Here is the input.
Amino acid sequence: MEIILRYLYSFFLWIYWPGMVIYIVFQFYTNNNIENSQKKQANFIGKIIMIICTYCLISGGIYQYTYHNLLSFIEYDQSKYTYIWCSIGIVLLEVLAFIVTETDNYSRIVIARFPVTKKLLLFLHLSVLGILILHLLLKAFYRVNFGIVIWRVELFLSFFIPIIYEFISSFNIMLSSRKEYLCVNNVFSQSLLISDVSHPYTFVQNSDNSFTISNGENSINTFPLKEYQIAKLKEL
Here is the structure.
């Protein structure tokens, strides 16, 4: 059991941790618990913690160990049940990630800048994970060996695709469920507006289909929007 948990931990660090870091560091999370504009960096502590943890993982050689550990997973034969339980674990991690994402999206309104690219990257991510799991199951039941080169490619894709996906996802317009807080995320640039009864949002469309959104005191500019995104924004 210890071996299975060690490999599952390695898969978590390799596939999911980098995407989590990108998600938390490169966008501002709007919610209904921000009390005032002084808390514009309400998730600043969370960002610092993620950066420090990632630095410790890299400088401590944990990621190098994780990579070599996952290479040995295929290079050296493991028990049948190790491959099976690791396959189940990866599926459960993906289901958990889906639940967290959907719960998160339910509490917010999000307009992505690159929705088609996001869907394509998500499809590629799920496809790579599907191939990786199939690889493990074939190794478990039939002792099929696809070779270390193919396994390296699978690890490479499973590492970088989620990073690119979360990076692309960091370009968005995010609105809290009560529509009190609106943020335009452009990776390193994160602009927040707060609205109340006396400071409603106003939208001015620019020539390039971007919008200037104001609450009467401050204003922020969005990225250019497509027609259906403009319709969604005007519904707000």
